[in-house]
Amino acid sequence: MKLLINTGGKGERLYPLTKEIPKPLVKILDKPILHHLVDWAKKHEIKEIVMMNGYKGDKIKDYFKDGQNLGIHISHSDEPSPLGSGGAIKFAQKFVNDEFVYISGDLICAVNLKRIIDFHKKNNADITVLAHKSSHPHDSDILKIREDGSVEKFVSKHDDHTDAGDLCNAGLCVMHPKILSLMDKEVFTFETYLYPKILQHNLRFFVYHSEEFISDMGTFDRLKKCEDFMKNNSHLFT
User: Fold this and answer.
1) pLDDT for res 163
2) Which end of the chain has fewer beta carbons closer than 10 Å to its terminal beta carbon, N or C?
3) The domain containing residue 44 runs over which residues?
4) What is the C-alpha to C-alpha distance for residues 132 and 20, in angstroms, rounded to an integer?
5) In angstroms, rounded to a whole number, what is the distance separating the alpha carbons of residues 3 and 15?
6) CA–CA separation, 237 vs 36, rounded Å?
7) DSSP-derived secondary structure for 146-206
8) b/e string for 52-76 if b means 16 or more Cβ within 10 A?
9) 50: pLDDT confidence band, cut at 50, 70 and 90?
């Protein structure tokens, strides 16, 4: 499967680290976040990556080029203007010809991708979303699931959370290309716009629940959390 990485983040909460570089190039342990994601992809036998570049995308292209020096094929989809997390995928759809993996480019990830893909195939899913328990579910977007892991309802952070559970999107999913046909806007947020549409169309929407480490580094506190985890669990990143 190809891996599509959303690399368009500005990282305003990490300023001044992101004054000259996009958020995915912020370093942890002397290596950009995005480079760690490439290493994770290679570890799980991903052969091709599409980087969906936005803010200061030239810096990402200069660093990674075509991926040859890293032993993996990298293509670049350069959005002409900010398109949101969903619009970036729609804009990059020319690179998609089969099922693919999507991940946010500001994540440190120690998740076993093979298990998610196996779960996705076993359930003949159209989309499988990695979810973990939220420490603050009542002001989070929640995925309410049935016993078999299929999604019953998407509960927006603004909706009534009674009996909704505490599973929230972790920023990683596996998708069938048919999901792209639901993307009928140019600019939109992937989860909040697309998840309700997937349910409306009765597509096979599943959650893979895991408490393996996956965390964004979009604030200085989270950046420190990711750095500490990597220092203490270096075996997961080699």
Assistant:
1) 86
2) C
3) 2-132+167-237
4) 33
5) 28
6) 8
7) -TTSBEEEEE-TTS--TT--SEEEEEEEEE-GGGGGG---SS--HHHHHHHHHHHTT--EE
8) bbbbbbebbbeebeebeebebebbb
9) very high
The H or E element containing residue 35 is helix 33-43
* Tens digit of each residue's pLDDT (9 = 90 or more) over 54-110: 999 999 999 999 999 999 999 999 999 999 999 999 999 999 999 999 999 999 999
Name the pLDDT band for 137 (thresholds 50, 70, 90).
confident
Q: State the CATH number of the domain containing residue 188.
A: 3.90.550.10
Tell me if 122 sits within 8 A of 200, measured CB to CB: no
Structure tokens at 10: 């500005």
Q: Taking the CA atoms of 128, 78, 11 and 107 in sequence, report the sign of the dihedral they define.
A: positive
Report the alpha-carbon distance of residue 206 to residue 145 in Å, rounded: 8
Please check whether residue 172 is in contact with residue 101, taking contact to mean a CB–CB distance below 8 angstroms: yes
Q: Say what the pLDDT of residue 90 is.
A: 95
Amino acid at position 30, single letter: D
Percent of the chain scoring above 70 in pLDDT: 100
- Asked whether residue 176 is assigned to any structural domain, the reply reads yes
The number of folded domains in the chain is 1
The secondary structure element, H or E, covering residue 102 is strand 100-104
User: Dihedral (C-alpha) 186, 192, 198, 202: value to the nearest 10 degrees?
Assistant: -150
β pairing state of 151-155 and 142-145: antiparallel
Q: What's the token pair of residue 56? A: 């200061």
pLDDT beyond 80 at 238: no
